[in-house]
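seq/struct pair 1
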Amino acid sequence: MIRRAHDAAEGWRPPEDAVFGAIPGSPQPGLEPLFGEPELVAHQDYCPGNVVFRDALPKALIDFDLARPTTRVADVVNALYWWAPLCHPQDRGPALADVDVPRRVRLFVDAYGMSTVQRHQVVDAALRRQRNSAITMRAAAEADPIFRRWWEGGVKDRLPRADSWLTATAPSLREALR
């Protein structure tokens, strides 16, 4: 479904004065770019609540408030965060606590049809995204009461665990993507 959305968006260029949504908070120092030049405008928020299922299969995406210029790899990394999932086993739902994440990442990128070049970019983009998440979520918590509640409710603890887990798992992910 994500590949079809990317293919449909390919070639469309937003107007020069387009404004894109973002989570609250001002831009923070220390953010690492996930990519050089954007390739397309894509969803960038594939959390389970933004995927509509019918007969246990994903059928549609909703909530495009964070859609913005990105790359296929960066957008897929967002989906992998939620669906592989790229977080510490302690912070996953029960159904995903013991899954083979490297295998799921490989299956996802195979199903997407990623090129060899794209596959080689996935792990580094995931690591940068994870490091950026701690910075942006802290800024969002300082700017918005809803994000502050999420931050205090456990996000501030989950993000460092995810970073440590992803860093330790990166070699297995790279191997799976060969």
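seq/struct pair 2
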Amino acid sequence: MKLPTPEIVEVLAAGGLDFVVLDNEHALIGPRDLSAMIAIARGCGIVPFVRVPGHAPRDVQPPLDAGAAGLIVPHVDDADQARDAVAACRFPPLGRRSVSNSGRAGGWGGVGLPDYMEQGNQDVCLIGQLESREAVENADAIASTPGLDGVMIGPADLAVSCGLGLDDPELERMVRGIEETCRRAGHVMGITAPDGAGAASRIARGHRFVVVATDAALLVRSARAVVASAAASR
């Protein structure tokens, strides 16, 4: 989701999607809207993930305290960066996340600290995004990091970082290489897809989750279809 519009979360939930990724890396979604969108997602039964801008405590703490079910951390290039992300997102002894159960994630103080910390370490899903040639080479080490639940392939940034086009066969070989590494080692992996058919093909290749399009892209696609249909009838 790129648009800071909480109601769209309801619309997408009504469409039957399993989860949304609220983009806090590339989109202008402020803290207040992000909190509202997480709350609406939870109320509508659609799982709220947040793609954070980095893995510093200031990047991950607000969405976690607001009740995000999981985080996608961009540009994880090696195992050291994966461990840094885990340290920022997990409570001691697994990490160094600051603790406060007074927010939504802690039931506004209703969840005791021991249970709150256990939930944060066991139930919050942490995904590292692979978007560079270095990440491709380190995919197994990254995905094997304790406290990281899976990896997500970012084809667009991977292509740009390697100086490739999105249709370059070398990009496809790198993506397939990550997939083979993850399948062989039993790591959870995910990826993006432009549409439902693309999602189905990627699931068949072993991906456990697929981020399909964006809210803006879905709106544009639908608007263009309506315009084309109306024009064809004239």
